[in-house]
Amino acid sequence: MRIFLTGATGFVGSHVAQSLYAAGAELRLLARKNSRTEHLEGLNAELVTGDLLQPEDLRGAISGCDALVHVAADYRLWVPDPKTMYAANVEGTRALLRLARETGVGRVVYTSSVATMGFRSDGSVVDEETPVSIENMIGPYKRSKFLAELEAIEAARLGQHVVILNPTTPIGANDAKPTPTGRIVVDFLNRKFPAYVDTGLNLVDVERIADMHVAALERGTPGERYILGGENLTLKQILDRMAAMTGLPSPTMRVPHFVAMTFAFFDEWITGRILGREPRATVEAVRMGKKKMFASSAKAERDLGHQALPVDSALRAAIDWFRVHGYAPKS
């Protein structure tokens, strides 16, 4: 099977590329002009230079493929101008789906996010059927992914073979950017985590996410969404596990959300608006943190063979990778 894969140079996408290659796929990998490609070494794959902001330029690369796996997204919790994020995440997705139809691509797997789910303030576990609307989406990243997912759902309703995956919070090796979750690990390792807020995440091994892209191509039901999760953990539990793994102290001081919000407001204003750098804390992230993002993967377990496993090994892999690659002291 010949597959056109977007996002292959990113954290999740590089693992997806490895899983697809191991499954015997012939790969065409989209990479932006200045993207790092070291995580793709060893893959006998064709690299295609392009950008989601110019999707029409990708028509030739998509043509002749049996499947499109669309992982790429603008994933930032703070952007000075959200227009580019909407252009990449929403308009780019719409255009890729159209190009897949026009060039006769038989199957599409769209990588959405658990961020599009209807999380509640009481911390209850949600699934694909939990009611949700655009009004529940906090910030441009969540809103853009929600709108992009609607594009995929509509394409499937009109007959296109589109399967939607909703990974929770991936953790593991090769998080080079790093992602917001990777920054939690890096900050902890560098002893820059003096306190915590009362929030929670569902952590999942990035390699499990990658393997489920192969499964979705093989047996996913068009138009269906599948949460790919691992373990529901509070932030404090995550920090305590890293402390047990590393011997570093876990913070004991819990910061109220209003204090975190105040810090984020000034950090975003001074660091982001005045200095033009990405702030360490954002108002959007603190607002998101008021809801524990706990989710169930039962549907993916039933239909795709997913396993919602403990994440200790993936957390250890992330710690080791960050240390080896100079993000934090080796011990």
Keywords:
Rossmann fold, 7-stranded parallel beta sheet, 11 helices, 331 residues, 41% helix, single chain, alpha/beta, 3-stranded mixed beta sheet, globular
Helix content: 40-55%
Label the overall shape. globular
What is the end-to-end distance?
44 Å
CATH superfamily membership of the domain at 2-174 and 204-230 and 296-310: NAD(P)-binding Rossmann-like Domain
* Low-confidence blocks of residues: none
Could you name the CATH topology of the domain at 2-174 and 204-230 and 296-310? Answer: Rossmann fold
CATH architecture of the domain at 2-174 and 204-230 and 296-310: 3-Layer(aba) Sandwich
Number of helices: 11
- Top-tier CATH class of the domain at 2-174 and 204-230 and 296-310: Alpha Beta
**Based on DSSP secondary structure assignment, what is the total number of beta strands?**
12
Order of helix and strand elements from N to C terminus? EHEEHEHEHEEHEEHEEHEHHHH
Question: How would you characterize the largest beta sheet?
Answer: 7 strands, parallel
How much strand content do the residues show?
15-25%
Give the structural class: alpha/beta
Cα radius of gyration in angstroms = 19 Å
Mean pLDDT: 90
Main sheet: strand order:
3-2-1-4-5-6-10
Describe the structure concisely for a colleague.
Helix content is 41%, strand content 15%.
Write up this protein.
This protein is of the alpha/beta class and 331 residues long. The protein has a domain at 2-174 and 204-230 and 296-310: NAD(P)-binding Rossmann-like Domain (Rossmann fold, 3-Layer(aba) Sandwich), CATH 3.40.50.720. It contains 11 helices and 12 strands. It has helices at 11-22, 59-62, 83-102, 139-157, 180-189, 206-219, 235-246, 257-274, 283-289, 298-304, 312-324; strands spanning 2-6, 26-31, 46-49, 67-70, 107-111, 162-167, 169-171, 195-196, 200-205, 225-228, 231-234, 253-254. The chain has a 7-stranded parallel β-sheet with strand order 3-2-1-4-5-6-10, sandwiched between helices. A 3-stranded mixed β-sheet has the order 7-9-11. Helix 3 links the parallel strand 4 (67-70) and strand 5. Helix 3 packs parallel to helix 4 (139-157) and helix 5 crosses helix 11. The longest helix has 20 residues, at 83-102. The model has no long low-confidence stretch (mean pLDDT 90).
